[in-house]
Amino acid sequence: MNDYPAIRWVVALKPEARIIRKNFNMSSSTQNSPYPLFKNASGQHWLTISGVGRINAAAATIYLYQISKAPPWTIWINVGIAGSGGSPIGSLYLIDKITDFSTQLSVFPKPALSVSIPRSSLLTLDAPGENYSRDQLFDMEGYSFFEIASKLSCQQLILVLKIVSDGPDIDFRSIMSKNVSELVARHIEVLSNVVDDLASVSKIEYDRLHIPDAYNSIVTKYHFTETQKHQLKKLIIRWRALFPERKPVDEIVNTNNASMALKALRAGIDSYKIKWDKK
Asked: What is the pTM of this model?
């Protein structure tokens, strides 16, 4: 399984998932799973269908994180239908404020997204509601999804996207599976663009947090204290940025303990800096 990029989708309903699965070539990966799971061949895209409700959304997000071994640079996306009192059916919104109806607590998603998508606030309910407001959307999963996902990745990589499916003139109970799939299909190109857009932010996190293979090779060669391990990780990351073609393990062939290995890596980095200053 590839570590980068990593995209995790959490949707409530099968019809919401259908088009996303098809577009990103995800097939079933469910094996005695409490929630349906899907992934593509590379393991970069994973999707789970949580079912309706806050508890399901939270539990499914945690489960997907654990079963897919999602790294801390993962892009987390919740896509789903929502009610609205004034927006046209089929409108797509990027959510920038989510309020929990029960507690009246609010969170403020801030994805690092350059794709232009209209924004809206969202109220997450405990049960389906029929009192539609014109200035916000309504769902039953968004708050819990964001609350959990924000503990698993940086907030700039977390997206909540809602598509208006019902309102004063269309009862949510009358929505058919086919209609939901069609609503998602209208915006599949935007969803693809969103993934591409956030990939560059995810790459920054990957470069910052990913432990290079060279670290594992060196740390098993000698006995490193915890402090020395931390120093080694920082040196390896710096080394990779300065010398992408040189293997740091080759620099410590003449060392015989952790202190000497760290000293050799520092010397290599310092020598580069000195040469650069002389230019």
From this structure: 0.78
